[in-house]
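Q: Could you write out the predicted structure for this multi-component system? I'm mainly interested in how the pieces pack against one another.
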Amino acid sequence: MEEILQLLSGDARLTPHQLAERVGRPVAEVQEIIVKLEKEKVIRRYKTVIDWERLGIEHVFGFIEVRCSPQRGVGFDAVAERIMEFPEVHSLYLMSGAYDFLVVVQGKTMRDIAYFVAEKLAPLDNVVSTATHFVLKRYKVDGDLMMERAEVKRLPVTP
Amino acid sequence: MEQTRSRVARKVEELPPSGIRRFFELVEKMPEVISLGIGEPDFVTPWRVREAGIYSLERGHTHYTPNRGIRELLRELSLYLERRFGVSYDPDAELMITVGGSEAIDVALRSVLEPGDGVLIPQPCFVAYLPCAVLAGGRAIVVATSVQHDFQVQVEDLAKACDDGARVLLISYPNNPTGGIMPREGMEALMRFAAESDLLVISDEVYAELTYDGEHASAASVPGGRERTILVGGFSKAWAMTGWRLGFAAGPADILGAMVKVHSYAVMCSPTTAQEAAVEALRACDEDVAQMHREYNQRRRVIVNRLNAMGLSCFEPKGAFYAFPCIGSTGLTSEEFAQRLLQEEQVAVVPGTAFGECGEGFVRCSYATSMPLIEEAMARMASFVKQISG
């Protein structure tokens, strides 16, 4: 099962037939496993890794450190739920250390992000302070290198 | 002045040219070819190992090391062999680091053979065994293995071939080119035979980590094995470190001492950078090795499945990264099959005969190549086979 998930996380387009051949199990069994994993939300969805910049479509990413005061009974969850609903919010993490939330925000321009922080994020009840860092260049994202490496050559026939 | 003798030693002149070399020259001229002829991993050495090599250079560790190898690596190797092979060796007396597994084979043969001593060599096998035995003054005694026995050498066949002058049995499981392995019971039988015939065993286990069915059974780990076996291994395959040229030998102190002597006169020591990088390989790369193993295993299933589906019967290779299908059904010889496949479909495989005469009727397909290329190569090969058979 883990092997099937690993294969799918590398290439979501692999068919049950291809998966079955690679893991050495019957196709029907693999299909059954996938359906079960989808039902159980282990497989949440299938997505595509796109390098938008190659199309000239620029995105700006901001990493925003947010300090806030927790609320009685619900801790940080209530404020997290308010923050994560904004479509600009790409990822949201509760952190240990000097601040509480790391909010990753995606926008078309820096101005979009500055506006989001000033108008939406900072004014939230319980948010004490924010510090915004803009991403200058993305080298590796979710395990994928965002640049081409020269192909490594091997001798065509070796013992 | 009339030349009375060749400038090249007769035993070198008489060595047949490598079948691989001949094929390499053909393939080299065809840049668009998909090669299943490569006997090394397609993976690059894990980054943490490369990084350790860089760090070694940064610190200026560019000098000779002790002949036997750096102490840290010998100690790690001893722990590794205990952990993975179930055999314990004294790092100061029973281990050495060599320039690839190949040098370990060469040095082992040169350290134990007297002129004319027989070396039993089951084939098909790695191309260097026979020449190394001959160059070391030995007499090669070839023993054929067959697909009926999953290319596991049979004690009866060894017994038939073995004569009074035989001194060494040179085996390699998991095997290049067949992908065959030797299960524990088989290894025990071989070791009983070696004891009865008073043979030393050189066991090349460089593909040990690439075993896909059960646990690898080391020749040194079976009863009676440790005291008569020179165990050879290396970093090339499981850690994808071919270009670093680093291997090792493990065995009884008297023989290892002799091997270190030969090694010290031949090459002094193994490359320092590679030795320091290999410490990291043994210490921290189990997960990298496991990941590569998983991928090879997936490719193995695909290639064997496709070969059988196209009508080339392929026994299940349980180790290394080669499939060794029988091409008998096409009516072609191994050489003809490989040449025509190359010319007509631009796919390179290696004729089985490059690994010994009994490789006739088979070709070696390496799956140390990316899955999309394997799938494309299999599609082309299927169309070639269909056209031949149709």
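A: Regarding packing and overall arrangement: The radius of gyration of chain A is 21 Å.
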